[in-house]
Amino acid sequence: MTHPITYPMKAACMLSGLPPDTLRAWERRYKAVVPSRINGRRLYSQEQVERLKLLKWAVDHGHKISRVTKLSNAQIHNLQHQNQPAEPAYEGQVRRIIDLIKNYRPEADVELARMASLMEPRAFVFELVLPIMRLIGKEWEAGKLSIAQEHLTSAAIRNVLGSLVRIYGVHTDAPAIVCATPPSESHEFGALIAAMIASIHGLRAVYLGADLPLEETSRAAHAVHALAVVLSINRLDAQTALEQTATLRDLLPAHTHLIVGGHATTHIPPQNAPAIHVSPTFEVLSQLLVHLKSQTTQRE
């Protein structure tokens, strides 16, 4: 039997973007959310975390917390649609980098690195890198991008993300998260971004790269006593994805969680959970890693 995911205050603050003092004040004065308590510790449900995100958005956009706490989530969503800016915060930078790529300009790499130095790591991943990858994917599918341009994009993103993982992923005493792709899976960005997300959350990211034998991934997980292995699968057929996922699950220690991300998540039947966690989006992965880390902290 699976239990609903809950988050301690520190994790809820990290996911919602609220400082702890603000969250306490909102609870005390406005009953923004009412967390459950176990042994005196606040625990927040996934729904409450989503509610806090909406409240933070509303306050950040000029609405009074005393008013928006009286609104339903649907009503706050309506406010979002009414106040939607003409373009996302980093849309200009996204388009500039894509234009540089289309013109085979090496400055694309430099511009990515510059933005990485200016932005918070999470914002860099979710508001710049992922939108670039989505737009590049659409251009590729529409036949508007050459192989060389796609390779230029890959090289630029790989260089910057690889550097960031090395910078932010060095949390020596933190639980380890091993990130890789299985044999015949050459699309490495899912695993690389997963490593970056793990490092953002204060976990020790162990990025192994693409097209790795399952035995090698398992060996690494055993060696570092991994809290979890993230396996990114995008281009394998359904049967192969299922077989490789099941094989790796058998090879891993019982205490190591297996998380499968990428397009292959549609191939993982629900009955395989919770032995295998399915992460269809990077946002889900982010929340799952925070949850697993908080469980480890609670056991300690």
Describe what you observe in this structure:
Strand 4, helix 10 and strand 5 form a beta-alpha-beta unit. It is globular and about 55 Å long. The two termini are 24 Å apart. Helix content is 57%, strand content 12%. The model has no long low-confidence stretch (mean pLDDT 86). The protein is built from 13 helices and eight strands. The protein folds into three domains: 6-82, Multidrug-efflux Transporter Regulator, Chain: A, Domain 2, CATH 1.10.1660; 91-167, Methyltransferase, Methionine Synthase (B12-binding Domains), Chain A, domain 1; 170-299, Rossmann fold, CATH 3.40.50.280.
Q: How many structural domains does the protein architecture include?
A: 3
How many strands? 8
The CATH class of the largest domain is Alpha Beta
Q: How does CATH name the architecture of the largest domain? A: 3-Layer(aba) Sandwich
Q: How far from one another are the termini? A: 24 Å
Beta fraction = 5-15%
Unreliable stretches, pLDDT < 50, 5 or more residues?
Answer: none
Structural class: alpha/beta
Number of helices: 13
Q: Helix amount, in percent?
A: 55-70%
Layout of SSEs?
Elements lengths: L5 E3 H8 L3 H11 L5 E3 L2 E5 H15 L4 H4 L4 H10 L8 H12 L4 H12 L2 H21 L5 H22 L7 E5 L8 H12 L3 E6 L4 H11 L3 E5 L5 H14 L5 E5 L14 E4 L2 H18 L1
What characteristics describe this protein?
300 residues; alpha/beta; Multidrug-efflux Transporter Regulator, Chain: A, Domain 2; Methyltransferase, Methionine Synthase (B12-binding Domains), Chain A, domain 1; Rossmann fold; 3 domains; five-stranded parallel sheet; 13 helices; 57% helix; globular
